[in-house]
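A.,

Following up on our hallway conversation. Structure tokens first:
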């Protein structure tokens, strides 16, 4: 079993010194005692960021994820890491499951993507946000690279997400070894202390160029507000039908 670092499971996630905000979902359960995350599961929302954000926080949906990442690189946390998010449904990985699912020992990350509209288009800002977050989670919980998988890998008879065209080679190439050197704070958006909005990660390549050519180049990342009012989502009968 992976050793929990001194920060603990409930320590807020920080990317380059900036804390990812928590917009709590009511859809969770406690992780089993003595269980730490050993698996990261990537999903695609099949809906817009706004609709997914609303649905994952709707108590009637009975689904959630630990993180939601927008196409523009926005990251918001929905379930604390010491809790089990309801993201995978009936699933297993390498023959392992607890209560017919991988949820108790996994971290779920939803990626904004609408297959019919987005096709194989995965924006660079979103992919950079995914790899940076995955790196941080791998460092914290000592998760191996081959345990970064898609929903289709843990539920192959039911699911195909995140998407057949998802750039797995890029994701796995850019996932750094465990315990890499820490990045500078400037690699993430610096939000005012009173700003509760999600963090947008800056492209690490641009960050490297920024360091080399400072003070001649400054490449700030964009950001957008998290909507507070969304269209109502229709509830489903149970988690397995939805997920």
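Then the amino acids I'd put at each of the 243 positions:
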């Amino acid at each position: 079993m992976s050793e929990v670092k001194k920060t603990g499971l409930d320590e807020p996630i920080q990317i380059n010194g900036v804390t990812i905000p928590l917009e709590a979902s009511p859809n969770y359960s406690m992780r089993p005692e003595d269980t730490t995350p050993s698996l990261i599961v990537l999903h695609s929302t099949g809906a817009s960021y706004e609709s997914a954000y609303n649905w994952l926080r709707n108590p009637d949906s009975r689904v959630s994820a630990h993180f939601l990442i927008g196409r523009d690189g926005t990251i918001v946390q929905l379930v604390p890491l010491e809790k089990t998010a309801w993201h995978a449904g009936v699933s297993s990985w390498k023959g392992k499951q607890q209560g017919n699912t991988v949820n108790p020992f996994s971290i779920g990350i939803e990626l904004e993507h609408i297959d019919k509209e987005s096709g194989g288009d995965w924006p660079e800002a979103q992919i950079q946000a995914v790899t940076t977050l995955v790196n941080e989670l791998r460092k914290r919980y000592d998760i191996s690279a081959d345990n970064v998988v898609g929903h289709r890998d843990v539920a192959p008879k039911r699911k195909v997400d995140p998407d057949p065209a998802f750039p797995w080679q890029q994701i796995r190439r850019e996932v750094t070894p465990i315990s890499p050197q820490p990045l500078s704070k400037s690699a993430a958006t610096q939000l005012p202390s009173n700003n509760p909005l999600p963090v947008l990660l800056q492209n690490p390549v641009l960050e490297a160029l920024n360091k080399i050519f400072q003070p001649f180049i400054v490449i700030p990342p964009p950001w957008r507000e998290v909507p507070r009012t969304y269209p109502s989502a229709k509830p489903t009968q149970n988690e397995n039908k939805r997920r």
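Helices lie at 49-56, 115-118, 124-141, 151-154, 168-174, 204-213, 239-242. Curious whether your intuition agrees with the design.

B.
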